[in-house]
Design brief:
The chain is of the alpha+beta class and about 375 residues long. It is built from 13 helices and nine strands. A seven-stranded mixed beta sheet has the order 1-4-5-9-8-7-6, with helices on both faces. Strands 2-3 form a two-stranded antiparallel ribbon. The chain starts with 5 loop residues before the first helix and ends in a 5-residue tail after the last helix. Bound molecules: zinc ion (ZN).
């Protein structure tokens, strides 16, 4: 207590009583240890301080008052000393903290960096596929996501009455009903074939990959999304047959999933290939022994493929009597889900950093 009651104050000389009143505010005004030391000198110092003056006044006080005054003065001194000590500890702690931040400054250290970004797992998988095919002479082609019916359907030998052309399956642009969001990466085939047809002989053929986004009117659920990714591949040359397709894809799957990755082909139908097939790969999770992902069969479907339909070559201005080729298309999300055992497609689009970090080992 640094405030005295009226009775105690009345015992003190007037200037001392005023000094007592000032003490609390003077103490909290001390912003550093130097200021505190000055205040300490003023109040409790050995010579000339208020405490010293009070001791002097005690000596000359009337005998009757001495006892009470002595108690007041001792109490005061004790309170001042304790309050000064507490404030000193506070200021010393503050100073220590300040010094430690000062000492932590090292101009030679690299500055703190924001967390680095990284490629999305789907992009990494697409890049990986490109890396597998590039040494085989494939380059990357891109096409627009807003396409014409001509490129998305007509050029791919898709019949006029094919259900995929309907508005239930395909997003058409409201203002331009002849334009649509491409439903597969195959229109890139049509564009590339048309563009390179005149120089086909000089180039000795065409090989390319076309990774990209595609759109279909699907409800969002764990295995469907109205937007997803495909990687399309195509090769045109002379005397190209199914054995070239099988050899190329078997090589690619080994490069992607390891040397033990066996493949098998099943007949299938797509309007733009003849014959058409689907390819299964030995389940990359169980290695073929059977698990939940491959539903116990040891095989998982990974892509659709086939020999390019003569009509597709013809529409692009290429003579199917001279040239032939194969094409394949792979669902990127589907493959990523399989490889990473991700049960829900939506995780790839939600940008939850915990998921993206956990996917760090996808490739
Ligand atoms: Zn399996």
């Amino acid at each position: 207590m640094t405030h005295l009651d009226a009775k105690a104050l009345s015992l003190l000389p007037a200037d001392m009583a005023a000094a007592c009143e000032r003490f609390p505010s003077a103490l909290s005004a001390c912003a550093n240890l130097d200021a505190l030391n000055r205040l300490k000198g003023t109040y409790t110092g050995r010579d000339g301080s208020f405490a010293a003056q009070l001791m002097e006044s005690l000596k000359v006080a009337p005998k009757a008052k001495k006892r009470d005054l002595g108690a007041v003065i001792n109490g005061l001194k004790k309170n001042w000393e304790e309050a000064l000590k507490t404030r000193q500890t506070e200021l010393e702690t503050e100073k220590k903290q300040l010094d430690s931040t000062k000492n932590a400054w090292d101009a030679t250290l690299p500055p703190p960096m924001p967390p680095a970004g990284a490629l999305h797992p789907l992009n990494r998988l697409m890049d990986r596929l490109v890396d597998v095919f590039r040494p085989l002479g494939y380059h990357v082609e891109e096409g627009p996501e807003v396409e014409t019916e001509e490129h998305n359907f007509d050029g791919l030998n898709i019949p006029e009455d094919h259900p995929a052309r309907g508005t239930a399956d395909t997003f058409y642009l409201a203002q331009h009903s002849e334009l649509l969001l491409r439903t597969h990466t195959s229109p890139v085939q049509v564009r590339v074939l048309k563009r390179l047809a005149p120089e086909l002989e000089a180039r000795g053929g065409i090989r390319f990959l076309a990774p990209g986004r595609v759109y279909r009117k699907d409800e969002i659920d764990p295995t469907h999304s109205p937007m997803f990714h495909q990687v399309e591949g195509m090769l045109v040359g002379k005397g190209i047959g199914m054995h070239h397709l099988k050899g190329t894809l078997a090589y690619a799957m080994k490069a992607l999933f390891g040397q033990n990755a066996d493949v098998r082909f099943r007949p299938s139908y797509f309007p733009f290939v003849e014959p058409g097939c689907e390819m299964d790969v030995h389940c990359p999770l169980c290695g073929g022994s059977g698990c939940r992902v491959c539903k116990g069969s040891g095989w998982v479907e990974i892509l659709g493929a086939g020999l390019i339909h003569p009509n597709v070559l013809r529409i692009a201005g290429i003579d199917p009597e001279i040239w032939s080729g194969f094409a394949f298309g792979m669902g990127v999300e589907r493959t990523a889900m399989m490889v990473s055992q991700t049960p829900d497609l939506r995780l790839f689009f939600e940008n939850d950093q915990r998921f993206l970090k956990a996917m760090g080992g996808l490739d």
